[in-house]
């Protein structure tokens, strides 16, 4: 079996999170979904697990607690886009699904176009497209 990545995120409202990730065009994985968590297939080996806050907390130790609503950022989840237009489409779907723009689309480096959005719980998702030329020669 190939290695997989599961991005586990706490949520205050599972239904709102489900509406958001569904609007992004991700497929719901019913095998890993129930009343406590929903699994969304981003790609063959990449899944987002959205867990009710209490359920998420049940996996934490050492007095750790979910940080929903915190202004602290421990992670920026990043995905690639197949096209530059795909970056803009991602942002539009995120806003339509209940998310918001965290960082507007820009081109921080030649040939790299990106945007960052927040889901309804404030988790940040970046999406970036890199031109084939930039991928072949990243230091140019």
UniProtKB/TrEMBL annotation:
InterPro entries: Glyas_Bleomycin-R_OHBP_Dase, Glyas_Fos-R_dOase_dom, Glyoxy/Ble-like_N, VOC_core. Residues 3-130 form the VOC domain. Pfam families: Ble-like_N, Glyoxalase. This is Glyoxalase. It comes from the Bacteria.
């Amino acid at each position: 079996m190939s290695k997989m990545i599961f991005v586990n995120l706490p949520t205050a409202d599972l239904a709102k999170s489900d509406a958001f990730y569904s609007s992004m065009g991700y497929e719901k994985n019913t095998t890993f979904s129930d009343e406590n968590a929903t699994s969304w297939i981003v790609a063959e080996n990449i899944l987002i697990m959205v867990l009710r806050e209490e359920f998420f907390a049940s996996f934490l130790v050492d007095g750790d607690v979910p940080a929903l609503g915190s202004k602290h950022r421990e992670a920026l989840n990043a995905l690639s886009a197949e096209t530059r237009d795909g970056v803009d489409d991602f942002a539009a779907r995120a806003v339509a699904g209940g998310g918001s723009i965290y960082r507007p689309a820009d081109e921080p480096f030649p040939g790299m176009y990106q945007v960052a959005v927040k889901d309804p719980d404030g988790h940040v998702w970046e999406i970036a497209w890199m031109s084939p030329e930039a991928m072949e020669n990243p230091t140019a």
